[in-house]
Write a structure and sequence with these properties.
With about 300 residues, this protein is of the alpha+beta class. It folds into two domains: about 1-165, 2-Layer Sandwich (Ribosomal Protein S5, domain 2); about 170-290, 2-Layer Sandwich (Alpha-Beta Plaits), CATH 3.30.70. It has helices at about 70-75, 100-120, 125-135, 145-150, 185-190, 195-210, 215-230, 235-245, 270-280, and strands spanning about 1-20, 25-45, 50-55, 60, 85-90, 150-155, 165-170, 175-180, 250-255, 260-265, 285, 295-300. α3 packs antiparallel against α4 (about 145-150).
Length: about 300
């Protein structure tokens, strides 16, 4: 039996890290968008003489140290007494380390698929395990709970799914332009001195968004946050300014990755695509907003 889980990619527009010794109480405040592209996780389990867990990214086997979060999740969800082979294949629509919540998607997809197979965890229990190992290994703070809720989300209380509180912004039909341009280590940013500025600017953005919870206000606040923290700079800022000339709402930086995103109307798309070609950018995605919770179940071809 093959189990498949789909987890939406998640873009963080701005955030406020909330650290806690208890990983289930740690997390982040902020806002972001879930996309119709993301992470597909396939799980196959076969009985045997010894327990073995194997994980592959986009078809390539990965060692435990290179996928510590997903391996930790798999080892916790798989019953201790189970003996056999657990095969986990994770397929990502976006590159790893570019700010699309891939580590959270892999962790959450693994937890849900294994929980579904073994029937030993509820949806929330599985999601909490994914969140816990994300936090402990500094893969991220708020992606898992955001992906659980879907849509354009506002994290108004930090914590794991079932503990933190997430609200959603009502929106009309926007397309999301996502441009992955480079890697940025979440761990390095969380460990740096810039955290104080991020906390200040993130709190300010959250207050203003809750007073006027619209997609349009979200994009203005996201851009202010990205520039005021100094995270959006150099070539990334120049590309953002070029995109801004062609669309109504400002583009912004994905937190945390050297990547850009924007909300577009259908009629704005052709000119933006032409400008991206002129800039020599051919790797970008046009996505919808994913308004559901993650899917998990038996996979039939």
């Amino acid at each position: 039996m093959l189990i498949r889980a789909f987890i939406p990619a998640h873009i963080t527009a701005f955030f406020v890290p909330k650290f806690n010794e208890n990983p289930l109480l740690a997390g982040s405040l902020g806002a972001g968008i879930n996309l119709t592209k993301g992470t597909n996780v396939f799980v196959s389990v076969e009985s045997g003489l010894e327990k073995h867990v194997h994980i592959a990214f986009n078809g390539e086997p990965v060692k435990r140290k290179d996928a510590i979060i997903s391996y930790s999740v798999a080892e916790e969800v798989t019953p201790q007494e189970f003996k056999g082979e657990v095969e986990i294949w994770q397929y990502f629509d976006f590159p790893n380390g570019y700010g699309f919540g891939n580590s959270a998607g892999g962790a959450l997809g693994t937890a849900l698929a294994l929980g579904y197979y073994f029937k030993n965890k509820t949806f929330l229990q599985a999601a909490q395990i994914a969140h816990k190992h994300e936090v402990l290994n500094k893969g991220g703070l708020g992606d898992v709970i955001a992906q659980v809720h879907g849509g354009i989300e506002i994290r108004i209380k930090a914590g794991a799914p079932g503990i933190g509180i997430v609200d959603n912004i009502f929106s009309e039909e926007y397309k999301v332009l996502a441009i992955p341009l480079g890697r940025l280590s979440t761990k390095e940013v969380l460990d740096s001195d810039i955290i104080r500025t991020i906390e200040k600017e993130g709190q300010k953005a959250l207050r203003r968004l809750l007073k006027n919870p619209t997609p349009e206000n979200l994009m203005h606040l996201a851009r202010d946050f990205a520039e005021n923290t100094g995270l959006l700079n150099g070539e990334l800022l120049e590309i953002a300014k070029e995109i801004d000339k062609l669309i109504k709402l400002p583009s912004s930086m994905i937190m945390l990755g050297k990547s850009l995103f924007a909300l577009l109307r259908e009629e704005e798309l052709p000119k933006v695509q032409e400008r991206l070609r002129d800039l020599g950018i051919d790797s970008y995605h046009i996505c919808g907003i994913y308004n559901e919770r993650p899917k998990v179940g038996r996979w039939i071809g």
